[in-house]
Amino acid sequence: MKIPYYPGCTLNTVAKHFDASARDAAVSMGFEMEELAQWNCCGATFPLTPDNLIGLTAPAKVLSNARKAGDTLTTLCSVCYNVLKRTNKVMKDSKEKRAVVNGFIEEEYDGSLNIIHYLEVLRDRVGFVKVKEAVKRPLKGVKAGCYYGCMLLRPFEDIGIDNAERPTVFEDLLRALGAEVVDFPNKIECCGAHLAMNNEDVVVRLSGNVMTSAVGMGAELIVTSCPLCQYNLEKSQPKVSERTAGYAGVPIAYFTQILGLALGQPVEGLGFEKNATDIMPLLQKKGIV
Amino acid sequence: MKMKLSNEDISSVRVRQIERISGEDVRKCYQCGNCSGGCPVSFEMEIPPSQVVRFLQLGRVDEVMAANSMWVCVGCLQCYSRCPKGVSVAAMLEALRQTVLRKGEDFEKIKDLPYPFLKKAPQQALVCGFRKFVS
Amino acid sequence: MPRIGVFVCQCGNNIASTVDTKKVAGEMSKLPGVVFTCDYKFMCSSPGQEMLKQAIKENKLDGVIVSACSPHMHEKTFRKASEAAGLNPYQCEITNIREQCSWVHHDKTRATGTVKSIDLTRMTIERLKRNKPLKKIKIPVRKKALVIGGGIAGIQAALDIAEGGRDVILVEKEPSIGGNMARLSETFPTMDCSQCILTPKMVEAELNERITLYTYSEVEKVDGYIGNFTVQIRRKSKYVDEDRCTGCGECIEKCPFKVESQFELNLTKRKVIYTPFPQSVPNVPVIDAPNCPKIQKDKCGACAIACGPKCIDFKMQDKIVTEEVGAIVVATGYQLMPNERFGEYGYGRIKDVISGMQFERLASSSGPTGGEIRRPSDGKVPQSVVFIQCVGSRDEKKGVSYCSKVCCMYTAKHTMLYSHKVHGGQAYVFYMDIRSGGKRYEEFVRKAIEHDNAMYLRGRVSRVYEKDGRVVVQGADTLSGSQVEIEADMVVLATAIVSREGADTLAQRLGIGYDKDKFYNEYHPKLRPVETVTAGIFLAGTCMGPMDIPESVAQGSAAASKVLALFSADEMAREPITSVVNRATCNACWDCLTACPYSAIERESVKDRQGNIVRWLAKVNEGVCQGCGVCVAACRSKSIDLRGYTDEQVYAAINAF
């Protein structure tokens, strides 16, 4: 099974290990992530105001190209997923906006693509039962906190991957991989996102809340699905440790790295060394490696 | 604080413009405060989200423009997600930002950003940040 | 040649400001058959009516037209006046020149309105010329009532009807009557104990000889019409012989199995053979069949061994009973919206987040904690409790658009009960607006704040989460403009009141209307608040929308008085505007039967002398027919006509336009 895949800018640069681990895991699960022959940046923000059609042109171009490759498009980065899925909905539902945007990009795209996240591929196409069967290195005893962030869940009526207040898709995957799942209150709260650019204090505070709330509930590992969440959590870690008594940091990894690990792929190929936090002591402690 | 209200305030053209850009109707908000309660960056805002809408209802755009609220909003959509009236404060704040940026006024200068950040940050942070802060 | 009189009303300025009534009257006088016309300021006033009567007598009129407001308003008035003057009342017709003309026209020159009024009146004249005198339909009334729902509204209705000397059947779905009120601890604003004021009424209903109680029963089918309903009631098997059971409770004692108690809202467990609560009426236990090992797997049977009078029968089946009644009171009550819908509040996941109704049980002396406020997770007495109002109410996105009306008051009551029971405990209330309209209600809320120290915060709560064994509430206080975080021991959600599950099915069974929220529609929200569009079916209590106990009781009594008024005569008269089938042309295609929204069409067989059926015909049941005319439109062979609005009359009116 080959599935057309849109990596997006970040996964082609600073989050290459997110991309690579996902592709490798796919192969072990019996499908192939086939990168689009031609793609561009999705714009990294779905325009919050409905009058901003120019913001839809970049993602619409991606969609239009993808449609030529098939009827489905997979993404991995939460932001790309959010932007593409919402743009697709506009292109499908609004005749007027579709006409304007198509006019700009000189295409005839009609919104007929099915945009799915990698997690949905695992859940709906492969099935978590099969994932569980394929596990070769179960994450026994690892207490993982699944951090959803914002873009994977909101707004529910456009995204709808899972219940916006009580999502379980991430947890279900981690359970299939043999991990123990820790529910924590801030798993659907913001990490600070693009404020990384000009307001580090806020980012440290928000990311700190995410990490301390997860660790407070017993998490030994935080799993993410967004390069910006990953970056903000990693980057804030030292300052949060400094500011929070009794907090000694927590390893943070992309869910695909953890997936690859459980599927028995060579540890050195998973790109853990590119993460700012070291997961190895935890894995050694649990006897996984 | 004393506010002198007039018909001109209530029917402010500038508020209508914010409504047009954001696609939101300020009258729909009944000021329950859920957005201010749930906003992850409310603590940093000079005017919390629900009060931003209140000022817009009163036609007081200047008060809102002078506050940092619109630049602090991360667009996480928690306000919209939990709003019992289906109002998006995030969209209104974006509209307020747009009224500045569309005039060509930048909130951040790209050349002032630290080099290590530009080098290490995920591309999405840069693209997204530029769209929010740069005209 | 007919002798018609036309009376044009000015309705003060309501009509006269856009219609030249004098001109309308003048134009009408030129038409053939019209022998008298006039216009007058208020035709509905007594001089106006006198004028009508006098004109009928003096001019020997055989038909009158009043061009005035909607026939809904004064058709009855003028028909009565005409009848008093010796005219068949159905020879009086109304032209609506107010709602459908003067009110919708703004032309101050009065040109448009006048022309339209002339047209409309002329059309009515042509219709009137083809009227046939009609007689009111008389139908017999069976003087026995059915009350559906044994909550406080239904109990009150049943008691009042019985008090009025008529027999009543009170049907209740649950094993005991009492409804939601039986769950409440104290009641606002007087703080009298709910059980103490309710149970005497429940017992009264049980002992009253005119009231037949059918508990654990549901209405399955309703046929017939006002005065003559046939109702089928399913009496679910209790597995206990009601007549012989003494209510000793030995069986409950001996039953070894426990399941969650629905009455206690899962705060505690009950036996599999049970009465919902100690004061249940009737005091007869029922076996919860799906959970009973004896019934499911033929294992156990301890209750039957313990039962002295041997009244337990594991083979008992449901019974269908048929009852003939003349009137029905629907009092099916409400339920609460499932709190799980609001994931951000953690209900169902965080043990110490409970519903307001669960708090009632905690505060009730007959509840699972004996009236002590103890939180579900560890049984500790909470030192701080956050009450969240409007959970699901006034929330058009995830809940309902309306206000549930009673939550402000019961939350204030909760804070009082809490502060009385837990000294030094602090109550916090998140509210949007305090709606305390009602006798002594506002004073009650102020007392909660000023005397019992409840901290009221104006704002909604965004989320609730657990932290170190406490429940953290994150919301806003919009009055100070701050985000608020409270670490509490327990959270109580004031959940929205919604219509009962299946309310729509029952409404369809009864032929009554309901709104978008599946609350039942009253005939007129102000002037006929306990009647429905279906004659003989009345409403009481929260099946119509959120209301408190005093209102529900008042409605129960109001519905009862309507029933008693109906039962006061042996026969009742109905408007004769009904459909009639042309027996010569009807070909029994039954399109009318499927089209009729009131099930007023019946199949009639025509037999030969030997008694063989030779033909079928549609027949209109005049007791049920509401004269809506749907069958007329549906009939392909043009075999149905509506009295007073026959095809001939309608065509004549159109031709006159």
Query: Residue share in helices of chain C?
Result: 25-40%
Arrangement of strands in the largest sheet of chain C: 10-7-6-18-29
Strand content of chain B: under 5%
SSE string of chain B, helices as H and strands as E: HHHHHHHHHH
For the terminal residues of chain B, how far apart are their CA atoms? 34 Å
Mean pLDDT of chain C comes to 95
Q: What is the CATH domain class of the largest domain in chain C?
A: Alpha Beta
Q: Which regions of chain B contain 5 or more consecutive residues with pLDDT less than 50?
A: none
Strand content of chain C: 25-35%
Q: What's the assembly state of these chains?
A: heterotrimer
Fill in the CATH topology of the largest domain in chain B: Fumarate Reductase Iron-sulfur Protein, Chain B, domain 2
Helical percentage of chain B? 40-55%
Largest sheet of chain B: none
Determine the CATH superfamily of the largest domain in chain C.
Answer: FAD/NAD(P)-binding domain
Structure description:
The complex is a heterotrimer of chains A (289), B (135) and C (657). With 289 residues, chain A is of the alpha/beta class. Chain A has 13 helices and 8 strands. Chain A has helices spanning 9-12, 16-29, 54-69, 78-93, 95-105, 118-126, 128-134, 156-159, 169-176, 200-216, 227-243, 255-262, 280-285; strands spanning 2-6, 32-35, 72-75, 114-117, 143-146, 180-182, 221-224, 252-254. In chain C, helix 2 packs across helix 3 (71-84) and helix 5 crosses helix 6 (194-207). Helices cover 27% and strands 25% of the residues of chain C. Chain C has 5 domains: 4-129, 3-Layer(aba) Sandwich (Rossmann fold); 137-236 and 318-333 and 500-570, FAD/NAD(P)-binding domain (3-Layer(bba) Sandwich), CATH 3.50.50.60; 237-316, no CATH class; 337-498, FAD/NAD(P)-binding domain; 579-655, Alpha-Beta Plaits (2-Layer Sandwich), CATH 3.30.70. Chain C is α/β, with parallel strands linked by helices and 657 residues long. Chains in contact: A-B, A-C, B-C. Chain A binds chain B through residues 8-10, 13-15, 41, 43-45, 47-52, 55, 77, 79-80, 150, 153-156, 164, 189-190, 192-199, 202, 205-206, 209, 227-228, 230-231, and chain B through 20-23, 40-41, 43-44, 72, 74-78, 80-81, 88, 90-91, 93-95, 98, 108, 113, 117, 120-129, 131-133.
